[in-house]
Amino acid sequence: MPVKIPRVPVVAVLAAVAAAAALLTGPSPLRTPASAGMVRMPAAVPATQSPAPATPRASAPASAPPVTARPGIGPELPGATPVGSVPPVVDHGPRTGNKVALTFDADMTGAMRRQLRSGAVRSYANLKIIDLLEREGVPATFFLTGMWVEQYPALTRRLAANPRFELANHTYGHLAFTPDCYGLPRVPEREMTADVARTFDLVAGYGGRQTRYFRFPGLCHDRNALDALAPLGLTVVDGDVVSGDPFAKSWRPVVRAALDGVRPGSVIILHVTEANAPMTDEALPHILAGLAERGLEPAPLSEVLGQG
Ligand SMILES: [Zn+2]
């Protein structure tokens, strides 16, 4: 989406995360980088203490590995944060090196699905983008809505099968998590946690490079929304380069927006939704060429954030 919205100050979020993490893991669990907006989490923090089994087996090893709260939500996944802590919000990675992240949002709403079913829209999945990334061996990270995954299971399998692609979470049906977010219908507050948890579960079924990265629709979030996601042990990823590709009429402004402010560590926001972002595939070769001219190299989001 083209406009950045105000959010809870990163410093406040960091403080809250550090406080919650300290309760769970002891002192200094969080390496706080010098660069504002970039957060690094510990590589391995037990998500929760598992209850002792009622009838422990005498032969059980004394040093069994920590058990996570739910299968597939291991603290080893990129972006995993201590369960119960307010999620950190990340815009970009360290401003060192030459790596940048190409991130593609796969939006799908109830209204979009009706468009597909009625035949008014042919596709919200831009195969030209995926073909190009595969042909050129370009790493990318896909923020998938649950409804998009349900609409395009074969394509989701194809994304998961590519070792250069990471999978992340963009809610189930692209509902707004704040009262005023570009006119998107709003998810009731009591359903926020389940909406995002359900999407992680859906995406997890496809395997591949899973993460605990999450992006709000329209990047709209407030303290209530962040609090609702605390049980899920995730990292919120906004981005520092907004390409503005939704409903673009020409590829040139998209290329300009993607390259204008790009720097080492940048997280570039694009869309793979074809009918709603019809110029992105035409812009992408120019964006890749422009990055190369600047000595910048696409990498999976986890590597750009220093968590890979
Ligand atoms: Zn979106």
Bound ligands, each once: zinc ion
Average pLDDT confidence is: 83
C-alpha Rg, in Å? 19 Å
The amount of beta strand, in percent, is: 5-15%
Gross morphology = globular
Structural class: alpha/beta
CATH superfamily: Glycoside hydrolase/deacetylase
| Count of domain modules | 1
Q: What's the helix count?
A: 10
Describe the main β-sheet briefly.
Answer: 9 strands, parallel
Quickly name the level 1 CATH class.
Alpha Beta
Oligomer: single chain
Return residue spans where pLDDT drops below 50 for at least 5 consecutive residues.
Answer: 1-72
Distance between the termini: 27 Å
Question: What is the number of strand segments?
Answer: 9
Looking at the structure, the CATH topology is TIM Barrel
Listing every helix as H and every strand as E from the N terminus to the C terminus, the arrangement reads HEEHHEHHEHEHEEHEHEH
What CATH architecture do you see?
Answer: Alpha-Beta Barrel
Helix residue percentage = 25-40%
Description of the structure:
This protein is an alpha/beta fold and 308 residues long. The chain has a single domain, classed as Glycoside hydrolase/deacetylase (TIM Barrel, Alpha-Beta Barrel). Helices cover 32% and strands 12% of the residues. It has helices at residues 10-25, 110-118, 127-136, 146-151, 153-161, 192-204, 223-229, 251-260, 280-293, 301-304; strands at residues 89-90, 99-106, 140-144, 165-169, 209-214, 235-237, 241-242, 267-271, 297-298. Helix 6 (192-204) links the parallel strand 4 (165-169) and strand 5 (209-214). It is globular, with a radius of gyration of 19 Å. The structure holds zinc ion. Zinc ion is lined by residues 105, 107, 170, 174, 217.
